[in-house]
TrEMBL record:
Enzyme Commission number, as recorded: 2.10.1.1
The name this protein goes by in its record: Molybdopterin molybdenumtransferase
Alphabetic keyword roster: Magnesium, Metal-binding, Molybdenum, Molybdenum cofactor biosynthesis, Transferase
GO terms for biological process, alphabetical: Mo-molybdopterin cofactor biosynthetic process
GO MF annotation: an example: molybdopterin molybdotransferase activity
Organism: Dyadobacter pollutisoli
Length: 404
């Protein structure tokens, strides 16, 4: 690896700050609301209508004038019916009741709805057993949820199924959102076999690409171009060059350390990507490299599977979220008591695969960077800075929740 790549190792915090400082929003696009799940609004959405847009009954029962009910047991003649979907405007005369159903328009003049469990129906009359009946009872008012013309959802909102339901309910069809990134994924390593190929001595089944594609899918990112490069400089340069044409973010796995066959760093230099940092004072994932070129981001992830995935969650995922307009870019962080003692004496901060259970966090067995069994069972990562290298049972530790 050439001298200029051997920059000083950065700390975890410095690396994260550099990612924040080097990410720009991707362009926006207009999308059908129903296709915008997992994207971020690039505009304030003003409510085109009030919700509800007419007075609605929230119960099956009888619409009345509440002041008619001066004592319990008053009987009112049933003068009409309002059912959900009814479009004509109806008017209720004082001293009468309307049969009404949930979601139906409350007739003009009616001031309350009495649920049918509080009534007795006999000979075309309804006896109201409730007293007093408060004005507005069981009536959803116009604009009670939201008034027309106000901000329904602000720019920067992450679109969830709840957001889609809310906007759909006010007739919104299209929204402006930040585009999802296109990802180029470079897999390097002469030892790698595809599933189905016979296992021979010295070879392993390639697993990082499936793992990273799955992680991207959890972020609703599916536009992924995968290339494989042999462990030589020319094919690594060729693959990175091709992946840089159409993609916004290029991820490489493997070949980023100092071995004679680790070409990713040099190849990135050859294509004039500017190294932002190389090597982070962390375990696992020390040789992580972050570079950029004309707005495109390059992450060279260490080949060890657990290192790759830790670096994805701690650095790549936040970068992907930042460029797509998300404010909550980093994994959700909380402090929890450790269920078991743990200590280390290395000179790097540690990320531990962990399980949050019953209000505590368990560091899992098998933290080596080649081992994925612990990751397969984990729902969180414990972050231990070097200043907290001895953890006693019950000590509070920083926990990063994995997305599920
Ligand atoms: N002399 C030194 N050697 C190493 C250092 C160091 O500082 N000095 N750092 C070690 C650390 S820490 C890591 S992490 C690894 C990173 O190595 P590379 O990124 O160059 O990755 P490779 O050598 O290509 O592979 C490492 C390991 O992972 C397996 N691998 C790679 N790709 C895949 C894949 N797609 N699917 C499954 N497994 C994969 C590969 O077979 C190796 O076992 O370097 C240390 N060495
Ligand atoms: O930093 Mo490496 O990821 O420990 O094995």
């Amino acid at each position: 690896m050439s001298a200029s790549l051997l920059t000083n190792m950065v700390t975890v915090n410095e690396a994260k700050q550099k990612i924040i400082a080097n990410t720009l929003f991707l362009p926006t696009e207009r999308r059908q609301l129903r296709d915008a799940l997992g994207q971020v609004l690039a505009e304030d959405i003003l409510s085109p209508i009030s919700l509800p847009s007419f007075r609605q009954s929230s119960m099956d029962g009888y619409a009345i004038v509440h002041s008619d009910i001066t004592f319990g047991g008053i009987a009112l003649p049933i003068a009409g019916e309002s059912k959900a979907g009814q479009t004509g405007i109806q008017t209720l005369a004082p001293g009468t009741a309307f049969r009404i159903f949930t979601g139906a328009p409350v007739p003009d003049g009616a001031t309350a709805v009495v649920m049918q469990e509080h009534t007795i129906l006999e000979n075309g009359h309804v006896t109201i057993q409730e007293f007093p009946v408060n004005e507005g009872k069981n009536v959803r008012n116009i604009g009670q949820q939201i008034q027309a013309g106000v901000v329904a959802l602000p720019k920067g909102t992450y679109i969830t199924p709840g957001s889609i339901g809310f906007l759909q309910g006010m007739g919104v069809e299209n929204v402006s959102v930040y585009r999802k990134p296109k990802i180029g994924l470079l897999v390097t390593g002469d030892e790698l076999l595809k599933t189905g190929e016979p296992l021979v001595h010295g070879k392993i089944y390639e697993s990082n690409s499936a793992m990273l594609i799955a992680a991207l899918k959890q972020e609703h990112i599916t536009d992924i171009e995968v290339r494989y490069a042999a462990d030589d400089l020319d094919s690594t340069i060729a693959a990175l060059t091709e992946l840089s044409v159409d993609n916004d973010v290029i991820l490489a796995t493997g070949g980023v350390s100092v071995g004679d066959y680790d070409f990713v760093g040099v190849a990135l230099q050859s294509i004039q990507a500017e190294t932002v940092f190389y090597k982070v004072r962390q375990k696992p994932g020390k040789p992580l490299l972050f570079a950029k070129k004309r707005g495109k981001l390059f992450f060279a992830l260490p080949g060890n599977p657990a290192s790759s995935l830790v670096c994805y969650y701690e650095y790549v995922l936040p970068a992907l979220r930042l460029i797509t307009g998300r404010r909550d870019a980093f994994l959700k962080t909380l402090k929890l008591p450790a269920k078991y003692a743990y200590s280390f004496n290395g000179e790097r901060d540690e990320f531990l695969k962990a399980l949050v259970e019953g209000g505590a966090v368990i560091p899992l067995d098998g933290q080596e960077s080649f081992a994925l069994r612990s990751f397969a069972l984990a729902n969180a990562i414990i972050y231990l800075p070097m200043t907290q290298n001895v953890v006693a049972e019950g000590d509070l530790v920083e926990v990063h929740l994995l997305p599920f």
